[in-house]
Design a protein that fits this description.
The chain has 13 helices and twelve strands. The radius of gyration is 21 Å and the shape is globular. The two termini are 35 Å apart. The structure holds adenosine-5'-triphosphate and magnesium ion. Adenosine-5'-triphosphate binds next to strand 1, strand 2 and helix 2.
């Protein structure tokens, strides 16, 4: 068990999100987009939580709310049990040191005229970290070592365009580390990177999480990288979490028909069952968040929907079995480890073992 695992085992959550919502008024106020529609989750120290779902389900908005780049319409955000939903300018400055974000496009998030040493030094200057330039440059060189851009001197004077996509994402990661954060929100950090370098970057982030005990929220539409990189997975659909659990539970024993569909879309057919998918196909595309279906929001696409599903909203997340059959308690008292928001999950769980 490494340091991060030990921390995860008995600790209290570092970050908690409670019934968080974000609405956008569009079309001159005539329509409301429910981008994030009442989500709750905890993040443990040293844990990697994946937020997974199709385009438009609210992943980035959730990340921005956690980063405080957007204000929630309602709900609460707690850091180490302290309510940090609303912060004064000094509180916000401290927040920016605790919580950092890695963006999808590292190139767009860097000033192309800066050298890498300036890119890395900028947050230190803003936050008055390091008394002298020399001290700050030492921190910059150290973080470049963390992201395996060595020797640091070889990279410090380059400009972003002189780096490969993977190297730029390493610099972008290094920039989040200079302020010694507790939480990093990584929004699709590998989706714009060459396929061959993706695993390398995820491996690097895993190493950082292990060595420094930093917690990650890993945002992705790709459930297969979530399996490789996360400890727990929260599956989002139209602004809500529909299933959450350890990555083993969610991927090996998916309970929500939507999770099952996401897994089917990426999984290799089993040997001897060429081309046979494990679960029933879902229909159509994700509806607009400005027009959330009545009843269970997933019912128009759900192959298992019955009359009740069209009439009543999906239930709150409830214990959903998984490998622990009934769900054991999560560290930090978040309740049952594997939870699902589908009134029919017990009837459709037969899909779990098709042999
Ligand atoms: N500033 C905004 N104004 C209006 N609607 C917005 C705004 N930002 C996001 N939305 C809408 O909120 C919903 C959720 O968007 P979000 O960007 O969080 O999704 P996402 O899961 O990150 O998608 P993707 O995988 O494409 O990045 C979408 O319907 C989007 O169009
Ligand atoms: Mg996004």
């Amino acid at each position: 068990m490494n340091e991060a695992d030990r921390t995860k085992a008995g600790a209290a959550p570092i970050l908690e999100v409670k019934d968080l919502r974000k609405e956008f008024r569009v079309h001159r106020g005539k329509a409301v987009v429910h981008a994030v529609d009442g989500i709750s989750f905890s993040l443990m120290p040293g844990e990697i939580l994946g937020l997974v779902g199709e385009s438009g389900c609210g992943k980035t908005t959730t990340g921005k709310l956690v980063m405080k780049l957007a204000k929630p319409s309602s709900g609460r955000i707690l850091f180490e049990n302290e309510d940090c939903t609303t912060l004064d300018p000094e509180g916000l400055r401290l927040w920016r040191r605790r919580v950092q974000m890695i963006f999808q496009d590292p190139y767009a998030s860097m000033n192309p005229h800066y050298r890498i040493r300036d890119v890395l030094e900028e947050p230190l200057l803003v936050h008055h970290v390091g008394r002298t330039r020399k001290e700050r440059q030492e921190i910059c060189a150290e973080v470049l070592e963390h992201v395996k851009l060595t020797p640091a001197e070889e990279y410090l004077d380059r400009h972003p365009h002189m780096l490969s996509g993977g190297q730029r994402q390493r610099v972008s990661t290094a920039r989040t580390l200079v302020l010694n954060p507790k939480v990093i929100v990584a929004d699709e950090p590998v989706s714009m990177i060459d396929l061959s370098t993706r695993a390398e970057i995820l491996h690097l982030l895993r190493g950082i999480q292990k060595d420094l005990g930093i917690s990650f929220i890993y945002i992705t539409h790709d459930i297969s990288t979530a399996r490789y990189f996360t400890d727990r997975i929260a599956v989002m659909y139209l602004g809500r979490i529909v299933e959450i659990g350890s990555q083993d539970d969610v991927i090996d024993h998916p309970r929500h028909p939507y999770t099952q569909a996401l897994i089917d879309a990426v999984c290799e057919p089993e040997p001897g069952r060429v081309g046979v998918k494990r679960f029933l196909r879902i229909k159509g595309e994700i509806p607009s968040a400005a027009d959330v279906p009545k009843g269970c929001r997933f019912h128009p696409r759900c192959p298992y929907a019955i009359g009740t599903c069209a009439l009543f909203p999906e239930p709150e997340l409830e214990a959903g079995g998984g490998s622990a059959a009934g769900g054991s308690s999560a560290a930090g008292g978040e309740g049952p480890r594997h939870r699902v928001a589908c009134r029919r999950w017990q009837e459709i769980r037969v899909a779990d073992s098709p042999k």
